[in-house]
Amino acid sequence: MDIDVPMFFGFVGLFTLLMFWPGLVVLHLTGIESFTLPSKIEWIYLCISALVTAVICQLLWLWASLATSPLQGILALALIVPGSKGISNILEGQPLSLKFAAGAALTLISYIGVCNTNRSPRQTAAKVEAFELELR
């Protein structure tokens, strides 16, 4: 699959802008949320956060999806929520509930199962090489 990575990210940004700005205006006009412009230091934090989360993380996710499969990429994203919640609870000294542990374990088991069924080293090497050439 040939994909133009900069164009892909451009369209993701364009669709996000077009789909979410109207909702922000509606929330502001109804009084549910109030919209104010960020201060200068908040702009700096927002730009750094956007660079790290939106660009680097999404680029790594796209690379992993191209190197493996879109299903593995989606399941890897599904591991973020239980992983961050579990680490947060551990750092704060809070116990993990049995429901949470069972759900996280099922998510992890499904990810490992999909990874074991989607192995093809030749395809993976070709996809990664094509992606690296696209970035150059």
Structure description:
With 136 residues, the chain is an all-alpha fold. The protein has one domain (37-135). Helices cover 82% and strands 0% of the residues. It has 6 helices and no strands. The chain has helices at 5-30, 40-67, 70-78, 80-92, 98-117, 121-135. α2 crosses α3 (70-78) and α2 packs antiparallel against α6. The longest helix is centred in the middle third of the chain and has 28 residues, at 40-67. 1% of the residues are buried. The mean pLDDT is 79.
Q: How do the helices and strands follow one another from N- to C-terminus?
A: HHHHHH
- Whole-number count of domains: 1
Percent helix: over 70%
**How many helical elements?**
6
Mind describing the biggest β-sheet? none
- Main structural class: mainly alpha
Q: DSSP strand (E) fraction?
A: under 5%
Q: How many beta strands in the DSSP annotation? A: 0
- In round numbers, the mean pLDDT is 79
Low-confidence stretches: none
Rg calculated over all Cα atoms: 19 Å
What does the overall shape look like? extended
What is the end-to-end distance?
A: 17 Å
Transmembrane segments: 6-31, 43-61
Protein name: Oidioi.mRNA.OKI2018_I69.PAR.g10482.t1.cds
Main location: membrane
Subcellular location: Membrane
